[in-house]
Amino acid sequence: MVWLGGLIVILTFAAIIKRYETRMVLFLSGILMAVLAQKPWEAFTAFQKAMVNEGLVPVICTVMGFAFVMKYTKCDAHLVHLLASPLTKARAILIPGAVVVTFLINIALPSAAGCAAAVGAILIPTLMSAGVHPAIAASAVLAGTWGSAFNPGNMHNPFIAKLAGISDPMVVIAGHTIASVVGAVVVAVALTAVAYIRKEDRGYEGAALAQGEGAKFEVNIVKAIVPVVPLVLLVAGSLGKLIPSVPALKQIHAFTVPEAMIIGVVLGFLVSVRSITSQDTSKQFFAGMGEAYASVIGIIIGAAVFNEGMKLIGLTGALIEFMKHSESIAKIAATFGPFIVAVLSGSGDAATLAFNGAITPHAKQFGFDILPMGSTAFLTGALGRSMSPVAGAAIVCAGLAGINPMEITKRNWPAMVLAAIVVMLILL
Description:
Blueprint: H1 2-17, H2 22-36, H3 40-51, H4 57-73, H5 75-84, H6 94-108, H7 112-129, H8 134-142, H9 156-163, H10 169-197, H11 221-225, H12 229-242, H13 257-270, H14 278-313, H15 315-324, H16 327-345, H17 349-358, H18 370-385, H19 392-401, H20 405-427
Helix pairs in contact: 1-2, 2-3, 2-14, 3-14, 4-13, 4-14, 5-6, 5-7, 6-7, 6-8, 6-10, 7-8, 7-19, 8-19, 8-20, 9-10, 9-17, 9-18, 10-18, 10-20, 12-13, 14-17, 16-17, 16-18, 16-20, 17-18, 18-20
């Protein structure tokens, strides 16, 4: 029965790689394993529990609602232009700077494809007009689209927090901060080195593209600040927990993610009140929440059924027993399992949720804690997606640069592989 479960899992990820609908594939695979285990109703129970997950649904939905409002009010565009404009004045930092700017903006705008579109529309033509090869310009933007690792509403941060019995996803973020920052630096430096070695960091003569509206756009500093406000509130409210040795920090109100995001929505409306209405703002916020439930929570629900099926058919227990005998096996599985599937499928979410739902709760049996093991799977899945030629963000970047997405993968794979190894070495 266990081997049959293993075959179903392989076929599941093969179907995801073939671009079949992720939620459907995970759900049906979980149901099939539960049926084979003669316990189908337990899979439906897992479905129901995931639907009303109090730790995940409010967090993820309010973050997406906030992102929709930021796009509608154009606060996101002001932030992008504010951070991108210094790059045009310093050629030496064009490529690594583009990676870092995209990374930072992706924290506030957590959708990889959305961030790639917003940032890429400005940075890719800017880099090309400065003589950077189109493929490197596109690679620089795609390479930064995993900055959402620092966003508390990214589905994986609250998911890992729940596994560890923690209510505040900021604790998860604090745990992987060093690994994420070092990983981002490795990516920026490695991609710059690739550009230099390939002699694509300058001299591109086909840069007929103008810098678009970048030169004409007038940044409103107040609007540019609004997308960052919820993150500042969350960090400030978590300082008391993260630095308990300073009593004064405990007096700061510990904002929840929904509180911070709603405050951000209100501020977005107030700074745009002359051009939008409260009714439209409300519609955008709830449209974003609905999109979050359909696109993000839907995957979590499918993964919950899939994980329950793995458990019922005995596959989870068998994998745990197998990994108990070697820490290195657990390290490699947590690092390169999600990474490889993400490269092939264009999404790190399914593989990461499957691994973290089934294996990470038993991390102590392999000699690790839940937080570092869960974060390793999360970050490496995001890194794998950031070099995938079939990821939505990659297709957006390639379209803006006028190239084949495979050209991006050829250039940023060394950076992503190195960063994945660095993350593993730091966290595990």
